[in-house]
Amino acid sequence: MNQPITIALPKGRLFEKTSTLLRSCGYDLELGERQLVARERNDRLQAILVKNSDLPTYVHHGIAGLGICGSDVIYESGYDFFELLTLPFGKTRICLAGRSDEKDDHRTATSLTVASKFTRFTRDFFHHRGIPVSIIRLNGSVELAPVLGLAPYIVDLVETGSTLKAHDLEVKEVLGETEVKLVANRAFYKYHNKRIGAFVEELKSVL
User: Fold this and answer.
1) What does the angle CA 162 – CA 127 – CA 81 come to, to the nearest 5 degrees?
2) Starting at the edge strand that comes first in sequence, how are the strands of the sheet with 45-50 ordered?
3) What's the confidence (pLDDT) of residue 130?
4) Nearest-5° angle of CA 55, CA 76, CA 197?
5) Which residue segment(s) compose the domain that 110 sits in?
6) Taking all residues of the chain, what is their mean pLDDT, rounded to a whole number?
7) Of 9, 93, 162, 174, which residue is most buried, by most CB within 10 angstroms?
8) Is the pLDDT of residue 167 over 80?
């Protein structure tokens, strides 16, 4: 009998949407309070619930064969996966933002200082433009950086822009878009491609 496929799911807002999607395909993965591992009743799928930023690590090391994760997190990890499917939720913008009352010259600047948790993306983006960038890594409350003078710009995910507005910040440029991806560990996919293919088709049938 085949062992269940293990899929890593992100904690937070994405978990509700991904678990609803899986449930619509007959995979009922109810996680109790403080429970981080669950099997659905027919033993076809096992889910592990992990921190979003850690998810690529679990898939890369084969702890989970599959994972559902934002493309921004995948890019920052530097790991290489098979991207199997783009899901129709969780899309957002990754933006350069700064103070509303200050002149924006980032396109003509000879160098930039930027605060962000997206260090790899930020470095690669501005390197491609030929602009040296000094990056201050922050993992939370990145909006405070321009307010308190730590850095004139931030790179962050922006949905409605209300948090920026509350801190007198504004989007200076949309640098890209992020999407939610179903990814596979390459070695796992090689040995289980038929089962994974069938699973992907199940998801596609309800999207």
Assistant:
1) 80
2) 37-39, 45-50, 5-10, 66-70, 169-184, 82-99, 153-158, 112-116, 133-137
3) 96
4) 50
5) 92-177
6) 94
7) 9
8) yes
**pLDDT at site 12:** 84
Confirm if 146 and 154 have CB atoms less than 8 A apart. Answer: yes
Tokens 């619930």 locate to 49
Examine the pLDDT at 1 and tell me if it is beyond 60: no
Q: Do residues 184 and 160 lie in contact, with contact meaning Cβ atoms separated by under 8 Å? A: no
For residues 111 and 172, membership in a common domain is answered with: yes
pLDDT, tens only, 22-39: 999 999 877 666 668 887
Q: CA separation (Å) from 185 to 1, 8, 80, 150, 151?
A: 22, 11, 8, 38, 37
Total domains in the fold of the chain: 2
User: Which positions ≥6 away from 71 have C-beta within 8 Å?
Assistant: 178, 179, 180, 181
Do 195 and 143 have their domain in common? no
Spell out the residues 6+ positions from residue 183 whose beta carbon is closer than 8 angstroms to its own: 56, 59, 66, 67, 68, 69, 74, 81, 82, 83, 84
* Size of the chain in residues: 207
Helix residue ranges, H only, the chain: 13-24, 55-60, 71-77, 119-129, 144-148, 162-166, 186-206
Query: What pLDDT score does 3 carry?
Result: 87
CB atoms within 10 A of CB 136: 14
CATH code, 129: 3.40.190.10
pLDDT of residue 135: 98
The single-letter DSSP state of residue 207 is -
